[in-house]
Amino acid sequence: MLFPAAKRAETVAAVLEQLSRVMRRLATTGGLGLTAASVLTRLDLDGPQRLTDLAASEGVSQPSMTQLVSRLEREDLVQRAPSPEDGRVVIVTVTGAGRNLVAERRLERAAALEALLNELDLDEQAAISRALPAFARLADLANVPAVSGRADRPRPGGVR
Predict the structure, then answer these.
(1) CA distances from 45 to 4, 49, 94, 104, 109 (A)
(2) Three-state SS across the chain?
(3) String of b and e for 115-141 (b: at least 16 CB within 10 Å)?
(4) Domain boundaries, the chain
(5) Pick the CATH number of 31-140 from 3.40.640.10, 1.10.1740.10, 1.25.40.10, 1.10.10.10
(6) Which SMART domains match (predicted)?
(7) Residue 150: its pLDDT value, please?
(8) What is the distance between the alpha carbons of residues 105 and 32, in angstroms, rounded to a whole number?
(9) What's the rounded Cα separation, in Å, for the pair 152 and 155?
(10) Residue 115 dihedral angles phi and psi, to the nearest 5°
(11) Exposure of 33 by Cβ count < 10 A (0-12 exposed, 13-18 middle, 19+ buried)?
(12) Radius of gyration over alpha carbons of the chain, in Å?
């Protein structure tokens, strides 16, 4: 079913917000809050990051990110080190324990999601499978920074 553009975006946004809340509830291992889980996942997927970049990407202040990273460091989930290029800059890296926790949460989420998917009928499961490439493309579009030739393209809500 196709909607007019404004209604389509509104409907997709509402459903994705609801799914986002569901996905957050599906993984509880480690007792991490949303920002802590997001930081660990970002470090696991994207590699070491500057503390300031983590704060910006998560939409929190640098002092808040410093507190969070300190807590994650005490729990041996991340480690901080000065940048080799500029000792004033702090680089944050996920530890083996942090990687393991991210993997455990991913498996926990996948198992819970599998149980939910099994509750759908075959047509609904097929519709989700057919929609996955479009959702992956949408995520890719939202993650492309505004660079050469695309600077005129607005980045919604600070999406990087």
Answers:
(1) 36, 11, 10, 15, 17
(2) CCCCHHHHHHHHHHHHHHHHHHHHHHCCHHHCCHHHHHHHHHHHHHCCEEHHHHHHHHCCCHHHHHHHHHHHHHCCCEEEEECCCCCCCEEEEECHHHHHHHHHHHHHHHHHHHHHHHCCCHHHHHHHHHHHHHHHHHHHHHHCCCCCCCCCCCCHHHCC
(3) eeeeeeeeeeeeeeeeeeeeeeeeeee
(4) 31-140
(5) 1.10.10.10
(6) HTH_MARR (SM00347)
(7) 38
(8) 10
(9) 9
(10) -65, -40
(11) exposed
(12) 18
Q: Please report the sign of the dihedral spanned by the C-alpha atoms of residue 92, residue 94, residue 97, residue 98.
A: positive
- What would the pLDDT profile of 64-116 be if each residue is shown by its tens digit? 999 999 999 999 999 999 988 888 899 999 999 999 999 999 999 999 999 99
Exposure string for 91-112, b = 16+ CB within 10 A, e = fewer: bbebbeebeebbeebeeebeeb
The amino acid at residue 124 is: E
The angle, 0 to 180 degrees and rounded to 10, between the axes of the packed helices 51-58 and 62-74 is 110
By residue count, the chain amounts to: 160
Distance between start and end Cα atoms, the chain: 30
